[in-house]
DNA sequence: ACAAAAGTGTTGCCGATACACCCATGA
DNA sequence: TCATGGGTGTATCGGCAACACTTTTGT
């Protein structure tokens, strides 16, 4: 898909505010993050963008997410807003934009200081069609453990996202949108282990998950593996939603 | 303290971004929130303000907090950024500013759509000197259960803050900055009960708190009460800090 | 002396952990 | 048939909730 040179309708964009997304996917037992590579450079960045003046921040995130992945159905979570003054320091935006054929004056609001709202998304890897934009020539997955150099404070943003996701794991269900519709218990366990970066006991994991009561076991099994064929499970949507809203371990 | 009419140095302010603070205090076994009353109106609002162009968002929050309370030592937590387009709808800012003697043109950036970053603060009630600003004539505490009408989406902001504080309680210590330096176990328990809006068992609370290992029991007791005099406790700062950073119940 | 509040201890349940055995499958 | 991974069961431990008794203090 070719990306047209955007019209850069400055009036349409809300200045001083931006969005950055940490898009998590799960593939081959790895937790991955979707990154963009900027043309004529060695830098990678998180997918992100601007908010239109007549658009809510959340709507902007969904728009950006769809542009980069083709997906609308994702789990989305705002986790932090980054407001340091030196977030974008040492970045010559004017030169960058000039490279791309935009002749902007030095005082353009796009070069102004920007506060960015961080969101993380959980998406189904196989459904994603990674799509670069006009400024980037590659959009691909990276293992969360081996991220490349990132521009601005994007490293910090990605780390905070992972940290928040880990915490989410302890009081909310995770897995829907990140796994395919049907999955096996070992697959779900691998997901948890990858996010937590920690091994878990197979049997206890099994029991605990079932105890949460958000899984539905199907009659089918996954064959083709080199060993005993595991059962397939599916999330019970209503119960999953309920667990998401209420959380668990909220006692005290 | 008289508040001077501010110079409204528009150039100094970062447009489209603002801050709102939910300042929690604890007094007479009530959890309270500090609110401002606007002159010539019936509306109350959360303390908030603008970020200067050369100031980080966090620094702005500390500045605003100090202006309204006189305090610098507070527990501060960013909890959400509110980015709906209709947050400030139905508000005639031009008229309001005109009331205050500012003759601003309709297109002034101050009237523009604004994304607000929500923080909550925990402060020691007795140390606070509530101070209104130029636009407000009263700054006082309200019981969190009986808030008045609030402007904009401030009700929603306050509720989300309380909700986040409740969650914090389950994986981090709370109490420092909210209680005086020395306090009794029943007082700490009341604080927890008030935040959770739920009664707790005295003995189990006692044990659990001590088990966290963040308290230091003093020799003194609080006399004067009509009954058996309770011990005084104090937070063990280093251990408290450690618990804040590491949290508890993060197992999986 | 009595009521009310505070300090401390005991029991039992439940959930989480640690660990063992059996079964299915492909090579 | 054997190695590997997957399904299921059990014993134990620890934390938390439920609960009772004693002590202190002011009136």
Can you tag this structure with a few keywords?
homodimer, 252 residues, alpha+beta, Nucleoside Triphosphate Pyrophosphohydrolase, Arc Repressor Mutant, subunit A, 2 domains, 7-stranded mixed beta sheet, 3-stranded antiparallel beta sheet, 28% helix, DNA-binding
Task: Provide structural commentary.
- The structure is a homodimer of 252-residue chains.
- Chain A has 252 residues and is an alpha+beta fold.
- Chain A has two domains: 10-169, Nucleoside Triphosphate Pyrophosphohydrolase (Alpha-Beta Complex); 174-246, Arc Repressor Mutant, subunit A, CATH 1.10.10.
- The first copy, chain A, contains six helices and ten strands.
- The first copy, chain A, has helices at 57-69, 93-99, 154-171, 185-196, 202-212, 237-246; strands spanning 13-27, 30-38, 44-45, 48-52, 75-82, 115-122, 136-143, 183-184, 215-221, 231-235.
- In chain A, the strands form two sheets. In chain A, strands 1, 2, 3, 4, 5, 6 and 7 form a seven-stranded mixed β-sheet that branches.
- In chain A, a hairpin with a 2-residue loop joins strand 1 and strand 2 (30-38).
- Chain A is elongated and about 65 Å long.
- At the A-B interface, strand 1, helix 1, strand 5 and helix 3 of A face strand 1, helix 1, strand 5 and helix 3 of B.
- Chain A binds a DNA duplex (27 and 27 nucleotides) through helix 5.
Q: CATH class of the largest domain in chain A, anyone?
A: Alpha Beta
Note the total helix count of chain A. 6
Residue windows where pLDDT falls under 50 for at least 5 positions of chain A: none
For this structure, what is the CATH homologous superfamily of the largest domain in chain A?
Nucleoside Triphosphate Pyrophosphohydrolase
Query: Which chains have the largest interface?
Result: A-B, 34 and 33 residues
Number of strands of chain A: 10
Largest sheet of chain A: 7 strands, mixed
Strand fraction band of chain A? Answer: 25-35%
Taken from the alpha-carbon principal axes, the silhouette of chain A is elongated
What is the CATH third-level topology name of the largest domain in chain A? Nucleoside Triphosphate Pyrophosphohydrolase
Mean pLDDT of chain A equals 93
Number of domains of chain A: 2
| Structural classification of chain A | alpha+beta
Q: Using the CA coordinates, give the radius of gyration of chain A.
A: 20 Å
Helical content class of chain A: 25-40%
Oligomeric organization of the protein chains: homodimer
The H-and-E topology of chain A, N to C, reads as: EEEEHEHEEHEHHEEH
CATH architecture of the largest domain in chain A: Alpha-Beta Complex
| Ends distance of chain A | 52 Å
């Amino acid at each position: 898909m070719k990306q047209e040179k955007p019209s850069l309708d400055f009036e349409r964009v809300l200045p001083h505010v931006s969005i950055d997304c940490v898009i998590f996917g799960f593939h081959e037992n790895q937790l991955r993050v979707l990154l963009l590579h900027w043309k004529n450079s060695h830098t990678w960045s998180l997918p992100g963008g601007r908010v239109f003046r007549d658009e809510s921040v959340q709507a902007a995130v969904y728009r950006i997410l769809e542009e980069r992945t083709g997906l609308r159905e994702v789990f989305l979570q705002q986790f932090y807003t980054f407001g340091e003054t030196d977030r974008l320091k040492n970045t010559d935006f004017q030169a960058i934009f000039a490279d791309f054929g935009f002749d902007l004056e030095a005082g353009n609001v796009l070069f102004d200081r920007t506060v960015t709202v961080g969101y993380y998304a959980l998406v189904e890897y196989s459904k994603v069609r990674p799509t670069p934009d006009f400024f980037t020539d590659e959009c691909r997955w990276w293992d969360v453990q081996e991220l490349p150099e990132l521009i601005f404070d994007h490293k910090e943003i990605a780390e905070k996202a992972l940290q928040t996701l880990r915490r989410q794991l302890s009081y909310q269900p995770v897995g829907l949108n990140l796994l395919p519709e049907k999955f096996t218990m070992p697959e779900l366990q691998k997901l948890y282990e990858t996010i937590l970066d920690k091994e878990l006991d197979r049997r206890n994991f099994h029991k605990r998950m079932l105890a949460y009561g958000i899984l539905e076991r199907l009659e089918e099994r996954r064959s083709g593996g080199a060993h005993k064929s595991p059962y397939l499970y599916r999330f019970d949507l209503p119960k999953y939603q309920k667990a998401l809203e209420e959380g668990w371990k909220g006692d005290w």
